[in-house]
Amino acid sequence: MDDAESLRALADTADVIINCAGPFAVTGMPVARAAAEAGCHYIDHSVEVHPVRQLYDTLAETAQRAGITMIPSLSFYGGLGDLLAGAVARGVADIDRITVAYAVTNWKMTTGAVNTARLLFADTERVGFENGELRIGFVEPRNAVFAFPPPVGPRTVIAPVPFPEAFTVPRHTSVRSVEAQLTARTFEEEQAFASEHLDSADRADSEFTIAAQVLGASGSASGTLRGRDLWRAGALASVEAAVRVTGGAVKSGVVSPGEAFDAPEFLGALADRDAFTVDLPTGS
């Protein structure tokens, strides 16, 4: 990450870079800057919101001038929630609140994921979106209950978790408040932080449900993604995006997943590749 010349040389040989190597507070900007300078499309798997904000603040104009697309947080956490929120919100007027809740079991973290989790837990400058405004500061996490649809059912969740949805969802959906949540049990499972050296087959045994709940003044809507192997789902999402951006079908600049793609269609394409099953409201 300290060798800008080598990163630029790598970017010069590529049409698109998919950066999967977190924590992105360390790896995000060096790789993204090299891609932008080389005129190379860029996609990353950031679950940390601060590197996502930094990408917008620092490289948006550069990306537009170069005619390239840069999509942060196009992975399982953050990216799929952003897309699901955008898909479910269609047809709901005057939206007050969007909640994106993750129910994850048997998550087996990589070394990069463990290091990222440590940074997220220690972060005191958390990004939230309340009453139509982006807010940055310390937020005391609380235990809440989110009613996931069957067969998961109501679960205790950490609320909020500092995922990117609070920053990305309002960029494409008019809403007053956005919050991401994660089942508390996910971090209580023994293997979550003790699985850094497993092979890919053992790591693929996770199960997940992502639920988006949209509350409007005159109605509400909800939708879910369900599947196994969150690592595979995130990888398929970023590769699908890479194919599309190199085909020239996505606008240039720094854009969130929900800004870049038609959310229901994109999620449907991933479902066709068995990344997960999709349940969206009629008309989404």
Automatic annotation (TrEMBL):
One Pfam family this chain carries? Sacchrp_dh_NADP
For the Saccharopine dehydrogenase NADP binding domain, which residue ranges apply?
Answer: 2-71
Which InterPro entries does this entry report, sorted A to Z?
Answer: NAD(P)-bd_dom_sf, Sacchrp_dh_NADP-bd
Q: Which PANTHER family does the record match to this protein?
A: SACCHAROPINE DEHYDROGENASE (PTHR43781:SF1)
The name this protein goes by in its record: Saccharopine dehydrogenase
Q: Show the taxonomic lineage.
A: Bacteria, Bacillati, Actinomycetota, Actinomycetes, Mycobacteriales
